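It is worth pausing here to work through a concrete case rather than discussing structure prediction in the abstract. The textbook approach is simple: state the sequence, then state the predicted structure, then interpret. We follow exactly that order.
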Amino acid sequence: MDAELVALASSGATTLVGLMVTDGWAQARARFARLFGREQPRAEAELEESRAELIAASDSGAAREETERVWRDRIRALLVVSPGAAQELRAILGDVAPRVHAEIHGGEFNGPVQLGGIQTNYFGKQ
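Step two, the predicted structure:
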C-alpha cells in the first residue's frame, strides 16, 4: 500500500474515533457505515460497538488508541479491496472533519481546541 493510502487510512481512523464521542456521531456513523457496508455488512453495528466501548472506557487514552488501530486496519483493508473507497473516504473526511483555523495577531494566538472551541494564548506583555 502506498504512503498516501496509509496516511488516508490513519486520518480516517483518527477522525472516525474522534467523532464517536461528539454530537456529530449520527451523521458520521451513517456515512462510515455506507463506506464499509459494501465489503462489511455488519459495519454499522460494529461502529456502534466500538463507540460503546470507547464511551465505557471513559477518558482512557489506551482505549482510544486501540479503537483507532482497529479501524485504521479495517480502513486499510477496505482501501486495498475497493479502490473507489479512497475517493469516498476523502469526501467523508472533507465533510465531517473539524475545520482548523488559527490566527496570530501581535502577541496573541487563537486556535482550535480538540474538536471545537477556541484557545487563546498570550505571548509577551498583556
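Step three, interpretation. Residues 3-96 form one domain. The longest strand covers residues 108-112.
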